[in-house]
Design goal:
Number of strands: 5
Strand content: 25-35%
Bound molecules: zinc ion
Structural class: alpha+beta
Number of helices: 2
Number of domains: 1
CATH class: Alpha Beta
Helix content: 25-40%
Order of helices and strands: EHEEEEH
Distance between the termini: 22 Å
Length: about 80
């Protein structure tokens, strides 16, 4: 889990996601199912806590992973379309 604090993190995440081409499916707004290159599917939650944007992936990776990146890319896109 990590907290999005600035736009650069989002930009980096989106660039990473583009390079890795994981498959992202929106389960519902703020919940995404991401399938990585190994075929494993992780669930990523994007939500607000204490005014901060938190991204939480259920995979074992301790660093901001590609699932997070892919989910953020879609989340930002959907949020923008909804006017969030
Ligand atoms: Zn992950």
């Amino acid at each position: 889990m990590f907290i999005l604090r600035n736009k650069a993190q989002i930009t980096n995440a989106i660039n990473n996601a583009k390079a890795l081409h994981p498959k992202v499916k929106m389960v519902e707004f703020s919940e995404y199912a991401v399938t990585g290159s190994t075929g494993n599917t992780s669930t990523v939650l994007c939500y607000r806590a204490n005014g901060e944007c938190v991204v939480d992936c259920n995979c074992p990776s301790r660093v901001p992973c590609k699932h997070n990146a892919a989910a953020i890319a879609l989340h930002v896109h959907v949020a923008a379309r909804r006017g969030h």
